[in-house]
Structure formats: structure tokens, C-alpha cells
Amino acid sequence: MTLTSAWTLVTKILDICIVWAMLYFLLKNLKNNVKMVLIFKGVIWLILIKFLSNVIHLYTVGIILEYVVSWGPIALIVIFQPEIRNVLEQIGRTQLLGRHKVLTVDEREKVVYELMTAIEHLKKQRIGSLIVIERNMSLQEYITPTTKLYADISSQLLEAIFLPPNPLHDGGVIIQGDKLTCAGAVFKTSMNPNVNKKLGTRHRAALGVAEETDAIALVVSEETGRISIACDNYLHYNLTLDEFRAMLIEELRPKAEVFYDADEGISEEDE
């Protein structure tokens, strides 16, 4: 194999990888965005109609569709400016190499234990709280204006932060790895019109950060003591302690570990 042919092969592989990455991000965001799913279906229909108009010689329809195809992309950019901006922000926040260490099983169990102990006490006393756990997407824009702690995670510290009249109790805390990075964080509230109007600011803020990033948001209601988890654009409302613990453990597990366990389960069943 010559140097030229080798370079050609490398560029083709790189080309395929870039296209695959673009399709991955597109489909990932399409899955969680109803508006973009509808417009995607509309584009498919336009392509089909354009093809049929060429086959059966519908000249007027063909001319109209040519104008739509020519000016459509500009119209889409204007109409879907917020969605496009969110996609670009998510790409920008993604930490390709990861700034935080991957927790060992023991470290992860300790984090879950401290969080569950705090959540149980906060629920019992009906103390409102918002705990956000960073995953792959950076939360630095929320961390910058806050009170920095960089402390080990402990249930006593979390309870002390959210206990009124502590000046930081109205904001949220952010966890990175096994460290409590900051307190007093303020998050954008969700603008989703389908959210229950009875939900308060904490729940809307939790859903907002789950819509903009891949973070996990843990919420305790000040009025009712109900506990909820927001992640992957969805708010799991009014969970029991067992449901809360199981979901938290599942969401904190590295994806590779989940796949490994699944493979093990299949092997055992086959045997």
C-alpha cells in the first residue's frame, strides 16, 4: 500500500466518523424534541412530494417546492433558533476527555449513602433542597457565580446548607465526582408548557437543568416533603425512598458498567 492510498483510506474513515457523529447528535436531540421530530417528518414528506412531482410531471407543484427548498433552510434557522442554540450549547458543554475521575464502586456507594441519608432527613423535616450532580456536560457556567466549597460530600453538610435561615438554602448545590463543589447555585427554570403548574421553582429549576444538560437533579419539596429526580429531560415526581435510591444508583453507574452487567445477565440466562 502506497502512502497516497493509505492517506486516502484514512480520510475516508475520518469522513465516515464525522458524518456518524453528526447523525448521532442529530438523532439524540430529535428523540427529546417534539418540534424537531415534527419538522423532520415534514422535510421527509416534502422530499417525497418533490420526487413524485418529478415522476408524474406536476410542474406547478415542482416550482413551488423548488422555492420551499431554496428558502426553507433560512426559515428553519429563524423558527428553530432556540433549539439550534441548545444543541450547540450541549456540544460545547460536552467534556470529551472528562475533567473528573470516574468513581470506584466504593466511592459511588459512599456518595449514594450520604445523599440518601441527607434526602431522608430533608424529606422528613420538609426542608426544600436542590442537589445537582454533574455528569458528562460541564456545569461551569452555573458554578462560576456561586459560593465555592470543594468539600467532601456528607449528609450533615448538605442538611446544614439547606436548613433555613442559612443564606445559601434557597439555591442549589452542585456535585462533581465525589466532591461538593459549590452552594447557592441558580438554574434556569424550565419553559416547558406541559409542566404541571402546581410545581414550584425548585422543580422547574431541576427540570430546566435536566433539559439543558445531562446532569441529575435531586429535589425535596418544601411544602409536601415529596422527593423527585429530574434527568434526561424528564421529572420523575413523588418517588418513594426505595424508588429514589434505585434510580439514583442506576443513573450514577457508568454506561460501560451497565452494558457489562447486561451482558453478564444474558450469559447467565443462556447457561
Q: What spatial order of strands do you see in the largest sheet? A: 2-4-3-1-5-6-7
Main pleated-sheet profile: 7 strands, mixed
**Which topology of the largest domain does CATH recognise?**
YojJ-like (1
- How many β-strand runs? 7
**How do the helices and strands follow one another from N- to C-terminus?**
HHHHHEHEHEEHEEEHH
Q: What is the helical fraction, as a range of percent? A: 55-70%
User: CATH first level of the largest domain: which class?
Assistant: Alpha Beta
Strand content: 5-15%
Helix-and-strand structural type: alpha+beta
Return the average pLDDT rounded to an integer. 82
Domain count: the total is 2
Q: What is the count of helical runs?
A: 10
Q: Give start-end ranges of low-pLDDT stretches.
A: 257-271
Distance between the termini: 46 Å
Tell me the radius of gyration. 24 Å
CATH architecture of the largest domain: 3-Layer(aba) Sandwich
Shape: elongated
CATH superfamily of the largest domain: DNA integrity scanning protein, DisA, N-terminal domain
Which helices and strands occur, and which strands form pairs?
Elements: H1 3-31, H2 34-55, H3 59-79, H4 81-93, H5 105-125, E1 129-133, H6 140-143, E2 147-152, H7 155-162, E3 172-176, E4 179-185, H8 201-212, E5 216-220, E6 227-231, E7 234-239, H9 241-252, H10 255-270
Parallel strand pairs: 1-3
Antiparallel strand pairs: 1-5, 2-4, 3-4, 5-6, 6-7
